[in-house]
Amino acid sequence: MSPMARTAPVPAATDPAIIRNFCIIAHIDHGKSTLADRMLQFTGVVKPRDMKAQYLDRMDIERERGITIKSQAVRMPWELDGTSYALNMIDTPGHVDFTYEVSRSLAACEGAILLVDAAQGIEAQTLANLYLAMENNLTIIPVLNKIDLPAAQPEKYAAELANLIGGDPEDVLRVSGKTGVGVEELLDKIVRDLPAPVGDANAPARAMIFDSVYDTYRGVVTYVRVVDGMLHPRERIQMMSTKATHELLEIGVSSPEPTPSKGLGVGEVGYLITGVKDVRQSKVGDTVTNQAKPAAKSLSGYADAKPMVFSGLYPLDGTDYPVLRDALEKLMLNDAALIYEPETSAALGFGFRVGFLGLLHLEITRERLEREYNLDLISTAPNVEYEVTLEDKKVVHVTNPSEYPVGKVAEVREPMVSATILAPNEFVGAIMELCQSRRGVMGGMDYLSEDRVEIRYRLPLAEIVFDFFDILKSKTRGYGSLDWKADGEQVADLVKVDIMLQGEQVDAFSAITHREKAYAYGVMMTTKLRELIPRQQFEVPIQAAIGSRIIARESIRAIRKDVLAKCYGGDITRKRKLLEKQKEGKKRMKMVGRVEVPQEAFIAALTTDESKDKAKK
Amino acid sequence: MEDTLPSVLPLGDPAPVDGLLPPQVLDGVGSRKFGLYVHIPFCAVRCGYCDFNTYTATELGGGASQAAYASTAVSEVEFASRALNASGLPHRPLSTVFFGGGTPTLLPAEDLARILGAAVGQWGLEPGAEVTTEANPDSVTRESLQLLADAGFTRVSFGMQSAVPHVLKVLDRTHTPSRVPLVVQWARDAGLAVSLDLIYGTPGESMADWRTSLETALSYEPDHISAYALIVEDGTKLAAQIRRGEVPQIDDDDHAAKYELADQLISEAGLDWYEVSNWSRSPEQACRHNLAYWRGDDWWGIGPGAHSHVGGVRWWNVKHPAAYANRLGEGVSPAAGRETLDAGTREVERIMLEARLGSGLEVDALDKVGRHAVAGLIADALVEPAAAFQGRLVLTLKGRLLADAVVRRILPD
Ligand SMILES: Nc1nc2c(ncn2[C@@H]2O[C@H](COP(=O)(O)OP(=O)(O)O)[C@@H](O)[C@H]2O)c(=O)[nH]1
Ligand SMILES: C[S@@+](CC[C@H](N)C(=O)[O-])C[C@H]1O[C@@H](n2cnc3c(N)ncnc32)[C@H](O)[C@@H]1O
Ligand code: SF4
Ligand SMILES: [Mg+2]
Description:
The complex is a heterodimer of chains A (617) and B (413).
Chain A: E1 19-26, H1 32-42, H2 60-65, E2 72-80, E3 83-91, H3 99-106, E4 111-117, H4 124-135, E5 139-145, H5 154-165, E6 173-174, H6 183-193, E7 206-215, E8 219-228, E9 236-239, E10 245-247, E11 250-254, E12 258-260, E13 269-273, E14 287-290, E15 309-315, H7 321-334, E16 339-345, E17 349-356, H8 359-372, E18 377-379, E19 386-390, E20 395-398, E21 409-424, H9 428-437, E22 441-449, E23 452-460, H10 461-464, H11 468-475, E24 481-491, E25 494-501, E26 504-505, E27 511-514, H12 515-532, E28 540-546, E29 549-556, H13 572-587, E30 589-592, E31 595-598, H14 599-605, H15 609-616
Parallel strand pairs in A: 1-3, 1-4, 4-5, 5-6
Antiparallel strand pairs in A: 2-3, 7-8, 7-14, 8-13, 9-10, 9-14, 11-12, 11-13, 15-17, 15-18, 16-17, 19-20, 19-21, 21-23, 21-24, 22-23, 25-26, 25-27, 25-28, 28-29, 30-31
Helix pairs in contact in A: 12-14
Chain B: E1 34-40, H1 57-60, H2 66-86, E2 94-101, H3 109-123, E3 125-135, H4 142-151, E4 155-161, H5 165-170, H6 179-189, E5 193-200, H7 207-219, E6 224-229, H8 237-243, H9 252-268, E7 272-275, E8 278-280, H10 288-295, E9 298-302, E10 307-310, E11 313-317, H11 321-329, E12 335-340, H12 343-354, E13 361-362, H13 368-379, H14 385-389, E14 392-393, H15 397-401, H16 403-410
Parallel strand pairs in B: 1-2, 1-9, 2-3, 3-4, 4-5, 5-6
Antiparallel strand pairs in B: 6-8, 7-8, 10-11, 11-12, 13-14
Helix pairs in contact in B: 2-3, 3-4, 7-9
The structure holds guanosine-5'-diphosphate, S-adenosylmethionine, iron/sulfur cluster (SF4) and magnesium ion.
S-adenosylmethionine (SAM) binds at residues 1, 4, 49-50, 52, 100-101, 103, 134, 136, 159, 161, 197, 199, 228, 230-231, 233 of chain B.
EC number (chain A): 3.6.5.n1
Membrane topology (chain A): Peripheral membrane protein
Keywords (chain A): Cell membrane, Elongation factor, GTP-binding, Hydrolase, Membrane, Nucleotide-binding, Protein biosynthesis
């Protein structure tokens, strides 16, 4: 077993041969953050008194939800057989929405630890990322975690892993991030098994940007992996895609706190600060080179993030619109995957149509906006992007149902995904039923082990973005896991369902659904609204319609009494206070025609029951 | 009842110990009438729905006896007179006096007479002044009513509430229905005008029950009727019973239907509404003390928790009878807090209060928002079109049921 390194290799003067770049691929909650903590501790880069759980998960939301959103790169020294090595660990997100970020960090590594909970086995998400890693020719180190758990089944899952990636079950390391068992062996194995980075130290500098983070104090912090040459502080660098040049104010490594260095050489991973204030000036996937001695050819870039799910975000209080706009601008500095454009809704006022990688991305973004910028937001039901061909052959892309063209539609195409679901085999029936009801077509089914199956379906994206995952979880008692990736599109019989209050269409409630599901949506929404909207001074009909055809209707009876018919006698003050409170309440209403709709009703109508439960937790 | 006291006091500014009022109260004092409210904070039992500032003997404990109450009230009368004089207000005889509770008639008639006598001694009475007391049917006798009349009372308001035994039971009322015609007759014989208080919408009360109560009350030919929708106040026994499911929820639609029936039967019997919850046989028999509240006149409220208003300054006394007695014993104002209304707030209050009156609200006195709302109110059948054409907003039957909504529509933004 190796001791802690006595001398750490110095950045900018490190032979690539003693560098190891790796990431950890794991399903959420399988213990990646905890394992990373142990590594920080065992390599001595974090002193015991500074250790806090999940050190690398910087953002509050991450800490609370236990999710890693932003990648971080940490340099750790480790000694083996008398040589001090520099290990760069790149922490990656583990959720399906963030596959894009995973792909960026994978490209900066030579190897990956495949971390699997020894009590759970591999999950669909992990399979997808593992696939990406193998495609990138990374060397995989399979590891079973949480072997301290009484429920751990290391034999079973070691066999499962060996079965998947080849090799001997005996070679699967067994560790516990909690107790630290096996972590030092793992560090040794990283040094032994992972290839060192290779590059041309004498060539013009080329470094790949794999992340770009906006920091209030320091501006944009750009994370890079140097491929060729060397970057030095104070020299002028150039972004190869835009040709924009910046002065390199600071260059260094995270260890794990930012530590300035004399530069970064071949194979090294670290950060750059140029004083720019916008991540768009330091684009993920871009190649950084030296302005004076530029490289001829940029590194092959990363695939740009493509938003899959769209939702309208509106401030509850219309006067907060500028705050929301500034907040989105700031978030975008930090989130290359986020796109948005202004949008107006008759019902909700001024807001933005925002594109997200997936539902979790939406939820996290919304939560951050509310928390960090003190906003109260309404988000409309999530939507996918439809391609609508009109009879005159014109093609429109629709991300907001209220923009759906009226009449003259020749064809509608909707985005498809191929989904992989892993679950114990007893749930196969329930899963198939769910996928069938979501217009899925089965692609195949394999046994991963005796009692665990992998089921593949091709499904319309629209059918899985809303509540699919929640339902899958509840139908499989929490054991089912899902992964999906975009898989073309298909022509479908889709219609737009409108909801009308007293004959006024409420754009925020319009939905594009499959024709067969239009009725169910109409009934669901009209019933919900009848319960949510308080009675008015007149009767309010609520209708759901496809075009001019009404498919569901409800009605809210007129209120008959709104008066305090008890005499408060001389206490006029109390009566006035009550009235002022009612007046305040009225201000929080949105007017749809003459109908006063409380904002809570909008929120509740646009929320699924499942996500309401989540919010409560 | 035309005058009641909620048990929760507002938060306001501190009130000065000498009770002095700011000079602004002198503005327009000549056009405002002056009245007196006297709160009697005692009841034999507490009704399950009631959250007024009132105490049973057991709730009261030591420190403030019913026997000493008249003297304490008289000392506030004297304090009031001094404070008003010292504030530079001109001498004004009382145009109305109202004894409310609690149950004023739980005190011996002599005590009520003494307090009234002290007030009349300080200020005098306008000719034809109205002097009312509230009374529970089982807290008066032929003799006590005669005594009150002799002492100068002109009017009595009985808490009848219902004529149906099972409804009275849910309301925790102690009197039997047959007591009401008796006390009404005694009051008449003593020369007192009679008003009856009714409550509708009690859990378990059917439409037929309510009709019975209305018809019974009307058969006694009162000069005045108040009909209140039962309000389930937080913290009352009734609220707890409903929460626990022991008695059914109350229902706004039921209230609305019962109000409509009340308006129909009461007006068929020859009484007209002059305020959302009040009907009188003639305009002269409307409760003038009540109207003074709605019209922003001046009054001084005597007693624990009592509210006062003089020229845009409102204040309220400490709630507990013992604390109240202590203050007056020390010669300082019993006020717990007060507020000085600015012009905007006075306007809001005026609209809020006058909108409920049969005489209505002047359209020209509304701001732009209010005037713009009028057409919509006519369209929604909430105000009388003919009155509106002549420049007054007068609620229709439907409008009375939606009076708070109407007020919200005409208030300045
Ligand atoms: N018993 C046990 N629990 C662990 C171990 N590693 C992580 N956990 C727990 O598993 C949960 C998820 O861990 P975390 O590191 O946040 O997982 P991540 O989502 O992959 O980053 C936390 O409650 C950890 O305390 C382990 O080795 N043994
Ligand atoms: C202050 S009480 C005093 C009258 C007298 N103590 C009695 O109860 O007969 C005045 C009136 O207010 C009404 N009242 C009291 N509590 C009420 C409530 N919670 N809802 C509606 N009306 C109420 C009753 O009609 C009652 O007669
Ligand atoms: S008798 Fe009147 S004041 Fe006393 S508790 Fe009953 S309703 Fe309230
Ligand atoms: Mg984590």
